[in-house]
Each structure stands twice: as structure tokens, then as C-alpha cells.
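Person: Please work through this fold.
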Amino acid sequence: MAADKIVLAAVAGAHGIRGEVRLKLFTDTADNLARHARFDAGGRALVLQNIRPDKPGTAVARFENIVDRNAAEALRGVQLSVPRTALPALADGEYYVADYLGKTVVDETGTVVGKVRAIENFGASDILDITLDAGGTVMVPFVADVVREERDRLIVDRAWLT
């Protein structure tokens, strides 16, 4: 389920009064955004003027034509994406979260149990957030001992699905 656009950040809100925005990063560093001049922001093109790291997982950015706090605040919640073709090739063990969102999850018998809703990371390792077909959700570590990938689905050890 390859997405043709990859979301790199989301606008968390305004920063100051001169049009800067705070960004929540979905990539390791602000430098990964700095290499792109233009972002798709929900159908609107935003041209990056500058970006600097802030607290871990965040950055502060300025975009063309966003000149005051009101314009910056109007971008709150907007996701910034780039075409997949603009991104570098992935190294072994790396992946784009977009490739897993909505992916079917089965147990080791092949029974469909749900779909991937999100991938989180609270510090130790990536965690799959799975919406269960039977209702509710479950989070499982996204590690080889628990999850295997096969074609267009993920196989999760049943012991983790309760």
C-alpha cells in the first residue's frame, strides 16, 4: 500500500508573532525537512524559507507568505508532505510509516484480526497500534520476534493480540 506522498511533519501551532510555526516532526531531524523547498499542505503549496530544530521531535519553521501569528495559527493541524519520489532510498531496516497504515494484520493461522491504525514510538522501539475487527485496539512491539511481514499483510503472534 505505497503512498505517493509521505507526511514529514504537522503544524502544531504558531510560534511568536511573525508567522513562524511549530512543527511536530515525523522524521528524525529538522534537516530531513530542510532538504525540501516545497511541501503539500492539504492541497496548498507551502515554500520553506527556513527551519531550525527545537525540542526533541519538534522544529520551528517559516514559510513564504505566512507573515503573522494569525496566518501561522490558521495552519494548525495541517500535514506537510512531499512526493515519495523526492525522498532518498531506504536503508535496510528503515521504512515509511505510510506504507504500513491500513495494512491487514493476521494471526499465525492466517485469520484476519484487524488493520494497522498507527505506528508509535515511546522511546524503546516502534509499536503497531492495531484496530481489531472484533472491536477495540491493541498495541504490539514492531519487532521481528512479534511481527513478520508477508506480501501485503503483517503476521502477529496471537499471544500479543489479547
